[in-house]
Structure formats: structure tokens, C-alpha cells
Write a structure and sequence with these properties.
With 103 residues, the chain is mainly alpha-helical. Helices cover 49% and strands 4% of the residues. The chain has one domain: Arc Repressor Mutant, subunit A (Orthogonal Bundle). It has 5 helices and 2 strands, in the order H-E-H-H-E-H-H.
């Protein structure tokens, strides 16, 4: 992996590690924060995201990627992540933006 790609991977993973328990962010939000696009962030997560809290990165509609739907549920329950009756995260309550400092 070249140095530029390695730095990008580290930026994405660092951003994911900063998401507080019980909160989520989106692929697009991470991309807006570190650069690139949502698909690039998705690529990083699919190839390097195992050691970070990957369940805290969801689609804009609050759903995890299809490959994580069943696995993410346990993490959401454990962390108290607010969800609706269809298993999606309630984004209005749980969304975290890395560009906005926590109060």
C-alpha cells in the first residue's frame, strides 16, 4: 500500500474510532471530514475496518450495510443506540459529526 493510501486509511479509521458509543456517523460524513467519497470510505472499512467500531458507520438512512445487519444489532443494543422498529438507527438522535465539537 502506498504512503498516500496508508495515510487515508489511517484518517478514516481514526475518525471511526472517535465516534462515541451509542452514536453513529455516515460514510458520507466521514468522507466530507477526511476527503474522498463515501465509496472510498466504504472500501477502507471493508478492507481495514475490523479492529474499529465499524457498526458506528451507517448509511444516510440509518441502516448498516447489508453484510452487517444482523451483527450490528448486538452492538447497538449493548451501547443503547436509538433505533426505530425497522432496525435502523434514529439518525436525528444518534448522529455524530466529527466536525462539530462535543459539548
Amino acid at each position: 500500500m502506498d504512503r498516500v493510501r496508508a495515510e487515508y486509511v489511517e484518517q478514516v479509521l481514526s475518525c471511526v474510532e472517535a465516534v462515541p458509543p451509542g452514536r453513529v456517523t455516515t460514510y458520507g460524513t466521514i468522507a466530507a471530514h477526511v476527503g474522498g467519497g463515501p465509496r472510498q470510505v466504504g472500501w477502507v472499512m471493508s478492507h481495514h475496518g475490523g479492529p474499529v467500531p465499524w457498526w458506528r458507520v451507517v448509511r444516510a438512512d440509518g441502516s448498516p450495510p447489508p453484510c452487517h445487519e444482523g451483527t450490528a444489532d448486538g452492538h447497538y443494543a449493548e451501547e443503547g443506540t436509538p433505533r426505530n422498529g425497522h432496525g435502523r438507527v434514529r439518525m436525528r438522535e444518534a448522529f455524530w459529526d466529527p466536525a462539530v465539537p462535543e459539548e
